[in-house]
Every structure is written in structure tokens, then in C-alpha cells.
Design goal:
Layout: E1 13-16, E2 19-23, H1 32-36, H2 39-44, H3 53-69, E3 72-78, E4 86-93, E5 96-103, H4 112-126, E6 132-138, H5 142-150, E7 154-155, E8 161-165, E9 168-178
Length: 180
């Protein structure tokens, strides 16, 4: 185990674009199934399905472990700092800084993902010193392609990332946004 401190603060609250991105708390657990237990999220993301209260507690524990390890942060997407409407994730890896997101079905159509990606990208550039932020998504996921485009990302000329998850094959495109 490394003795290196996590690059992430113990608590994090980011504001901008009319959003407040904040840490998940125990009080959010009852709201999480309504956000994440949906066929679209089950299909397009690695989030477990079905997503019930037990899965919510496991996700909260995983979030805290990944942050402590310095691997990733998962923040609730809110407009007021209170009710969670979705999630944005930042993962640091040797190949770069990656973002991911999921917005609850009842809260779509408000550009929440686009705005959350912009706020988290600014954090990655300004606070973490990232040179490039990437999104990895399937070309068939029209909603995520629209988020990438609207947030200013461009499709990179790199090989597809292929694999299998939840019993189905996937091929991920890499979209990037460079600092400056």
C-alpha cells in the first residue's frame, strides 16, 4: 500500500454552471435507486443493476475507498446542494483523467450532464493540473455523444477500447478536451 496522500480533498464541493457538485452522503442513499435503477443506466454504464438500497450503500463505500486511494471521486450533481439528480465521476489513471456521468431519468433534458462535465473538467485542469480530460463512450449512445459535443470535447483518433461488461460487448470511443 502506498503512503502517498490522495490528491483529492477529504470533502469536495464544486459550483458553477448553475450546479453544485458535492460529496455523496448517507442521507442520499434512499434517493440513489431512483437515479440509477434504470434500463439506460444499466445498459450504458458499469453501474450495477438492479440498483437498490444495498447497491447504494456499496456505491457510497466504493466512492469513499476510491477517493482515499486517490483513484477517483464521485460527486452528486445538484442544483441547490441538496437533492441529488445524478452523478459525475473523475478518475485518474496512467493514461489520463477520465470523466463519467449518469443523470437520473426524471432529471434529463436540463443539460445537467453537460454542465457537470464542464465544472468537473475545469476542476481537473485548474486543481489537478490535467493536460487533457477524456470521455469514453459508445458511438451508439447518442445522448452521451451530444454531451461530449456540447461540452466542447472532440473525438480523438485513437483505437477503440473494446471489452465485455454485463454480458454484452462494447466498443468505446475516446473524446478529449485539452487544457487551454
Amino acid at each position: 500500500m502506498s503512503s502517498t496522500a490522495s490528491p483529492f480533498p477529504e470533502r469536495l464541493r464544486l459550483t458553477g454552471e448553475g450546479l453544485v457538485l458535492r460529496d455523496w452522503t448517507e442521507a442520499d442513499v434512499p434517493a440513489m435507486p431512483a437515479l440509477f435503477d434504470h434500463p439506460d443506466i444499466a445498459y450504458w454504464t458499469p453501474i450495477v443493476s438492479p440498483f437498490d438500497e444495498e447497491a447504494a450503500w456499496a456505491r457510497l463505500d466504493r466512492d469513499r475507498r476510491l477517493r482515499a486511494e486517490g483513484t477517483a471521486i464521485l460527486l452528486a450533481v445538484t442544483v441547490d446542494g441538496d437533492a441529488p439528480l445524478g452523478e459525475v465521476m473523475l478518475r485518474r489513471a496512467p493514461e489520463g483523467t477520465e470523466l463519467g456521468y449518469a443523470i437520473g431519468p426524471a432529471h434529463r433534458g436540463q443539460a445537467l450532464a453537460v454542465r457537470a462535465v464542464r465544472v468537473m473538467t475545469a476542476y481537473a485542469f485548474e486543481e489537478l493540473g490535467a493536460d487533457r480530460v477524456v470521455l469514453e463512450l459508445e458511438a451508439e449512445n447518442a445522448a452521451s455523444v451530444a454531451v461530449a459535443t456540447r461540452a466542447g470535447f472532440r473525438l480523438l483518433d485513437v483505437p477503440l477500447i473494446t471489452g465485455e461488461e454485463k454480458g454484452r460487448p462494447f466498443a468505446l470511443q475516446t473524446w478529449g478536451l485539452d487544457r487551454g
